[in-house]
Every structure is written in structure tokens, then in C-alpha cells.
Write a structure and sequence with these properties.
With 197 residues, this protein is mainly α. 76% of the residues lie in helices and 0% in strands. It folds into two domains: 108 residues, no CATH class; 78 residues, Arc Repressor Mutant, subunit A (Orthogonal Bundle), CATH 1.10.10. The chain has nine helices and no strands.
Length: 197
């Protein structure tokens, strides 16, 4: 009986990860603009989820998983800032122009890759996808995270507040500001979409 329960839990986890992985990837990719790092964060988050929370009720899994993803994204950003600081420090002590050690230390920082339009399945037009991607990169990190949790993942204000470990008022404020900024940035598309509905 216990083996059957374990198999059921494993199958439920597999189904959950299959459904959640694309959303988590989009979130990490939008935040970090690095395909490989986004994949690593999703993989690591799934491992941590299994290790620490597999026995939690299934209705809690989405909130727990996306909290892990958010924390890993924030860790990656702190790591980048630390290495950017090291780059500045190293450049101030460089003795020769041929020294490439600072590039080796931070070679992962500015890698970018093209956005795969298939992974933006919630957006209907490729042109809008590109504009939205550019517009989202202009948002402050917290607004971008709140927008993705609320609009892409469909979490409630309360759930987003729990995932990001901040107040409901903060979530409302960031969500409002993100929507306002995106409406301004995408005004022509926004008006067209509203006129069709």
C-alpha cells in the first residue's frame, strides 16, 4: 500500500512538473535573459521541491515551487552583482592589457539568446511577443516578477505575496505599475486588442 502511495505521489509530481516547467522557464528566462541559466534554475528548483516538499499537499505545490524558482532567480542576480563588483575590482588592479582573467571570471554575465516563440504560447502574435519581451525588460525586477506570477501563472494577489514574501499592498502596487508601464509601452497593440474584444 505504501509503495502504491509513493508511486502515486511520484506520478503527481511528474505531472505537476510537466505542467509547471514551461512557466518557470519563461519566468527565469525573462528575469535573467540567459537560456542555460534559466534551465539550470528550473532543474535545481524541481530537485529542491522533491527533496523538501514532496510530502506537502498537492494544492500547495504551485506556490512552493514558484517561491523556490523566485528565490533561485534572486540568488542568481545577487551572484551576478557580486561578480560584476569583482570585475570592477580586478580591472582597477590590472597590470597589463593582455590580461583576460576578468573575462574568465564573469564569462556568463552577458550571454543572450533569441526568445523561442513557441514558449510564449499565451501571446497570439509574434510581433506582440517581441514588443512585450522588450517592454518587460524595461520593468524593474519586482514588477516583472509580479506581472509574470499574476498574468502568466495566474496566481492570486495573496498567493503572489506569499511566493515573493511581501505584503499584499506591495503586490498590488507592483502589479498596477507594471500594467501601466506595459500599457504605455504597447499602447498601439493594447488599443487594438481592446477594440477587437
Amino acid at each position: 500500500m505504501q509503495a502504491t502511495n509513493e508511486q502515486d505521489t511520484q506520478q503527481a509530481l511528474n505531472d505537476f512538473f510537466t505542467a509547471s516547467q514551461p512557466q518557470a522557464y519563461r519566468m527565469a528566462k525573462a528575469a535573467l535573459r540567459d537560456h542555460e541559466q534559466a534551465l539550470d534554475i528550473v532543474q535545481d528548483s524541481m530537485l529542491k521541491m522533491v527533496e523538501h516538499y514532496r510530502d506537502k499537499p498537492q494544492q500547495e505545490w504551485p506556490m512552493l515551487f514558484f517561491r523556490i524558482v523566485t528565490n533561485r532567480i534572486n540568488d542568481a542576480r545577487r551572484f551576478r552583482m557580486l561578480h560584476a563588483g569583482k570585475k570592477l575590482l580586478l580591472s582597477s588592479f590590472r597590470k597589463t592589457e593582455n590580461d583576460t582573467s576578468e573575462d574568465e571570471i564573469i564569462d556568463m554575465l552577458d550571454e543572450q539568446d533569441n526568445v523561442d516563440s513557441q514558449q510564449l504560447e499565451n501571446l497570439a502574435k509574434q510581433q506582440l511577443n517581441d514588443k512585450l519581451e522588450v517592454a518587460m525588460q524595461k520593468l524593474p525586477m519586482q514588477q516583472r516578477q509580479v506581472f509574470m506570477l499574476r498574468e502568466w501563472q495566474g496566481f492570486s494577489i495573496k498567493e503572489a505575496a506569499q511566493i515573493l514574501e511581501c505584503s499584499i499592498g506591495t503586490i498590488k502596487q507592483h502589479h498596477h505599475r507594471a500594467l501601466k508601464a506595459l500599457r504605455e509601452e504597447l499602447a498601439e497593440y493594447w488599443e487594438h486588442a481592446n477594440s477587437e474584444s
